[in-house]
Amino acid sequence: MQPIISVENVAKRYTLGKTSARTDTLRESLVDFARAPLAMIRNRRSSSTETLWALKDVTLKVAPGEVVGLIGRNGAGKSTLLKILSRITEPTTGRVELYGRVGSLLEVGTGFHPELTGRENIFLNGVILGMSHRDIRKKFDEIIAFAEIERFIDTPVKRYSSGMYVRLAFAVAAHLEPEILVVDEVLAVGDLAFQNKCLGKMEDASLGGRTVLFVSHNMPAITRLCSRALLLESGRVVMDGATNDVISTYLERSFSAGHSREWVDQSQAPGTEELKLMAVSVMRQDGSVVSTATVAEPVLVKLVYVTTQPSLKFRCAVVFNTQGTCAFATVEPTETLHDKPGRYTSIVKVPCDLLAEGEYMINVSIFTSRGIKQHYVQLQNVVALHVYDPMTGDSARGDYAERLAGVVSPRLEWTSEYEGPA
Predict the structure, then answer these.
(1) Which string of DSSP letters, residue by residue, matches 321-389?
(2) Contact call for residues 291 and 261 (beta carbons, < 8 A)
(3) Calpha distance 223→242 (Å, rounded)
């Protein structure tokens, strides 16, 4: 099957500290001529420029009807690639082939003329996509109804709020039926209800055979829409594969620091003369150390410590914090007598379907509370864990793509029954 999008060895270079040439008026040309001697002196003093490669050797093919997610950190090159595919920006090197009309929804305002009304911009965009006036009129009422801005349709779009801009821009891009729909993170500007509406529309577009390229930092939305994803880093495609595999790799790379701590030198380990904490790690049930976990799998927090004196009685505690809020604290139910000096481990299991999506920092304490309270170890933010929902199988959200509020996300049972006519 011939791909609908073909990108071969595309690269995009920007020169920092240098402005591009502009089209001058006669007056501006005369002013520049007068300033030329001074400009030459300045250029000699500051002739160094810095080159930035926003994209490097990007090659990919997208089949008709495929829905592909583009993920990566800010500055990875996602938006630059979409601008090249939308013919807004030319690549420095490489070749791009598109076999179909492209409807783009990039940053707010792209493709709209601020002085024209919403009505006029709809027809302008339709003409740009190669549609006839008659075809645009057939879709006009649907576009207005979807955008929910009937009162302002004859108002110049320069007076629209950013949310109104997004509503109309997405409605135009989705309803004028381009073969390729390109959507950037701009959907984050809209309210929650409209975001869900847009996600549903993109699902309908994909089921209708249209090709969709979707950039977002909303991982559940990427999972819901896309069967394939690309991971970009520093302008390169470093992974291309199944969405869940790519997202898992992205989260591991983005949140890899701090998932385990180990102190090799006992004299440098935190603690007291009686007890030293040697290691803390977050693990799966198979014992592998992880920095990310899904909401549907249990995780273990393992503490390794050494006692130097006999007959020490204490307990361990672990606290999960997120965004400055305590998600929960767990403590060993009884103080255990460690009668022999040596190396010990304590493990606590956090069950599946408990933690909500988010980043968690973990505090660790080892203490005695009987008699005179004493802390042998008290560390804050010692290790970290990122929890996400891969949107596969059962979870608390079902097929709801947006993030659920709260620091816990238990999977509860819901029932609905028909009770007869109202």
Answers:
(1) EETTEEEEEEE-SSPEEE-S-EEEEEEEEEPSS-BPSEEEEEEEEEEE-SSS-EEEEEEEEEEEEEEE-
(2) no
(3) 10
pLDDT digits (tens, 9 = 90+) for 185-205: 656 555 667 777 777 777 777
For the chain, what are the domain ranges? 5-254, 260-388
Alpha-carbon span 291 to 361, nearest angstrom: 11
pTM above 0.70, yes or no: no
Residue 7 CA: distances (Å) to CA of 62, 198, 209, 221, 365: 9, 27, 20, 25, 54
- The CATH topology of domain 260-388 is Coagulation Factor XIII; Chain A, domain 1 (2.70.50)
The 10 Å CB-count burial string (b at 16+, else e) for 149-188 is beebbeeebeebeeebbbbbbbbbbbbbbbbbbbbbbbbe
CA nearest to 406, candidates 364, 353, 363: 353
**Least confident interval from 21-30, 74-83, 269-278:** 21-30
**Residue type (1 letter), 263:** W
DSSP result, 271-311:
B-SSEEEEEEEEE-TTS-B-SEEETTS-EEEEEEEEE-SSS
Chain segment 11-63, per-residue pLDDT in tens: 999 887 655 555 456 566 666 666 666 665 555 555 556 788 999 999 999 99
Place of tokens 């767990």: 330
Q: What ranges in 148-279 are assigned the alpha helix state H?
A: 162-175, 192-207, 219-225, 243-254
Beta strands 312-322 and 325-331: pairing type?
antiparallel
User: Cβ atoms within 10 A of the Cβ of 408, count?
Assistant: 13
Name 157's Cβ contacts closer than 8 Å, sequence gap at least 6: 109, 112, 113, 114, 116, 117, 118, 121, 164, 165, 168
Determine the Cα–Cα distance for residues 139 and 352; give it in Å rounded to an integer. Answer: 47
Question: How far, CA to CA in Å, does 86 sit from each of 64, 235, 305, 348?
Answer: 17, 17, 57, 51
- 5-254 has which CATH code? 3.40.50.300
Let me know: does 222 contact 247? Beta carbons within 8 Å: yes
Closest CA to 309 of 281, 285, 342, 287: 342
- Asked if 356 contacts 388 with a C-beta cutoff of 8 angstroms, the reply is no
